[in-house]
Amino acid sequence: MRRPVVRKLTVAAVSAAVVSVGAAAPSESRTAPMEKVPVAVGHGGAVASVDADASAAGIEVLRKGGNAVDAAVATAAVLGVTEPYSAGIGGGGYFVYYDARSRSVHTIDGRETAPLSADKNLFTEGGKAIPFAEAVTSGLSVGTPGTPATWRTALSSWGSKPLRTLLKPAERLARDGFTVDATFRAQTASNEARFRNFPDTAKLFLPAGELPAVGSTFTNPDLAQTYEELGREGVDALYRGRLARDIVDTVNDPPVDPASGYRARPGDLSLRDLAAYRTKNQAPSKTSYRGLDVYSMAPSSSGGTTVGEALNMLEGTDLSRLSETRYLHRFIEASRIAFADRGRWVGDPAFEDVPTKELLSQRYADSRACLIKDDAVLTSPVAPGDPRDPAACATGGTAAPTMYEGDSTTHLTAADKWGNVVSYTLTIEQTGGSGITVPGRGFLLNNELTDFSFTPANPAVHDPNLPGPGKRPRSSMSPTIVLDGHGRPVVALGSPGGATIITTVLQTLTGFLDRGLPLVDAIAAPRASQRNAAQTELEPGLYDDNEVRKRLQDIGHSFRLNPEIGAVTAVQRLPDGKWLAATETTRRGGGSAMVVRPVR
Questions:
Q1: Is the omega angle on the peptide bond into residue 381 within 30 degrees of 0, that is, cis?
Q2: Residues in the active site (predicted)?
C-alpha cells in the first residue's frame, strides 16, 4: 500500500519501457501493497507522486469524472497521511494550474505566514541568532498553515468536486492504515530523539514506544477524524473553529514531556493570525526559452525567478552540442550567478521591492551570462548584479552567502482528459516539520518560519528575507509548467529538496528540453547543485565519475558528495491525447506514475 520494494530498472531500461508500460489505480478492494512504477503512458489523465496510494487516489478521482485540480487535492490529502514528515494540513505550498480552455496559467501562493506580532528579531536572543536546531523544534518556527486554504481556493476557482468527497480516500487510509516501508522507518528514526520530547508525537509515530516496523500497518485515526471534520465543516474549521484553537494552544505552549528536559520555545500565534490568513492568486513567473514558455511561481517563492534567470543565461549556448563536462560547467555557473541574485533581491513582495520582471529579462541575463568563462570558475559567494540597471559583467555588488533551507517537501503533478494540468509543491519544511503534533489531531506542525534569515546573511547587504509581521518566508519551491508556441502543455514538473529544488528543476528541464533525454531519464540522471557556495554538491553518479569530475576540477570546480538531491514528479503531453507520467526510479524509494487508461 505504500512504497513497496522498487523494481530495479536501469535508466536505459526505463527508456525502453516508456512506449509500453502503463499503470492505473487498482480497485479499492485491493489488500496487497501496490508496486510502484516510475513511468506510465495512456489516456484519460495522469498523476505522478512519490506514493502509490496518493497517485491511486488522484487516478480514482479522474476515473470518476473529476478534473486535474480535484485529483491534485485528493492526492495531496493522501500524502498528508503517507508522507506526514513532508506535507500535510499543518503546512503550505504553491499550486500552479494550466487551464486548457483558455490556454492560460494561474498560480496560488499558499505559503505560511509569520504571526502578526513577529519582527526581524523573531529568531534572535540577546542580539544573537538562536541555534538552528533549537529554533526548528519550537513554537517559534510555526507559521500559519496555508495548505487547507490552498485546497479551498483551487477547488472554488477550478475544481468540480466538493472537498468532502476528495478527502474520503485520505480519511479512509488514515483510519485503515498503510504499509510501513524502509523510507518511512528511516525518516522516523532520524527524528526519533526529538519526537520523544513530545508525548503526542511519540504516541503517534513511535507506536508502543518503538520505531514502526517495515511491513507493519500504520494507522492515524486522529487524522481521519480531522479530515472528516474539515470535510463536514469546511476549511474554516482550521482557521476559525475548534481546530484553530487547538493549533494556537499547541504553538504557544508546546506540549513537551517534562521528563525530557527539553526546552521548546513558545511561539506567539493567535486566532487573529489564523482568521486573517489568505492565499494569493497571482500571475505566474514567465520565461521564454527556445520558443517555449516556462511558467512557475513568482515571489514569495524564488523558484520561478531563479530557474528563469538561469535558463535565460543558458539560452545563448547550444547545450545539445556540448560535452557532458562543458554542459555541467555551464549549468553550475549559471546556477551560481542566479543564486547570488536570488539572495539579494527575492523576498515577500508585500514587504520587499522585488524586481521580478527585471530578474527575468533577457537583457539582464545577458549582462550576467558574460561572467561565465569556459576555462575558469567563478569564486563564491559571487556578488549580485542590479537587474534594474544591468551592466555587462558587473561585479561591483557585495556578496552574501546562501542561507540554509530545509530539504523536505513533496511534489505532485496531475493532468486530466480535458488537457488541464496541475503542478503542486507542498511542505512542512524539515523532514518532520517542527516535531510538534497537535494533540488529538494527527498532524505535525510546520517549521516554515526557519526559512527566514535569522540575521542578515551579510550585514553590509540588505537581506529581503528577514522576518516580519504576516510575512511569507522566501521559498525555493518551483512547480513548473512549460507550454509550446500554441499555448499547449509540453511538460509539468517540480521537486522537493529545499534550495536544491531550483537546481533540480533546472537540470531536469535542460536534460529533457536540450539534451534530448526521455523525461524519466532526465529525472533519473545524476544531479549537481550549486547555490553560490564554495563547493558544488554532486550525487554519487557524478561524484564517482572520475573522468568528468577530474575535468571539471581541472577548470577549477570543487565538489562535495550529496547522497541524494531532489525527487521529481512530472507529466508530459504526448500526441493523440495521451499523457506520460514520470517519477524517480530510486530516489526516496522511487515514485509512482499512473494513468487512467494505460497503453499496453
A1: yes
A2: 409 (nucleophile)
Q: What type of residue sits at position 433?
A: G
Q: Under DSSP, is residue 179 helix (H, G, I), strand (E, B) or coil?
A: strand
Q: What is the mean pLDDT of the chain?
A: 93
Query: Residues forming the annotated binding site for L-glutamate?
Result: 111, 451, 475-476, 498
Instruction: Please state, in angstroms and rounded to a whole number, the distance separating the CA atoms of residues 533 and 402.
Output: 7
* C-alpha closest to that of 368 among 354, 376, 378, 357: 378
For CA atoms 385, 388, 392, 397, the dihedral sign is negative
Active-site residues: which are they? 409
Q: What is the pLDDT of residue 460?
A: 84
* pLDDT recorded at residue 405: 61
For the domain 39-283+402-598, what is the CATH code?
3.60.20.40
Instruction: Report the number of secondary-structure helices (H) and strands (E) in the chain.
Output: 20, 20
| Residue-wise DSSP of 505-525 | HHHHHHHHHTS---HHHHHHS
pLDDT digits (tens, 9 = 90+) for 54-113: 999 999 999 999 999 999 999 999 999 999 999 999 999 999 999 999 999 999 999 999
C-alpha–C-alpha distance, residues 298 and 60, integer Å: 32
Global pTM value: 0.94
Rounded distance between C-alpha atoms, residue 492 and residue 478, angstroms: 11
Q: Binding site residues, as ranges?
A: 111, 451, 475-476, 498
For residue 489, what is the DSSP state? Answer: E
CA distance 146 to 426: 9
What per-residue confidence (pLDDT) applies to 392? Answer: 86
Q: CA 217 to CA 41: how far, in whole Å?
A: 31
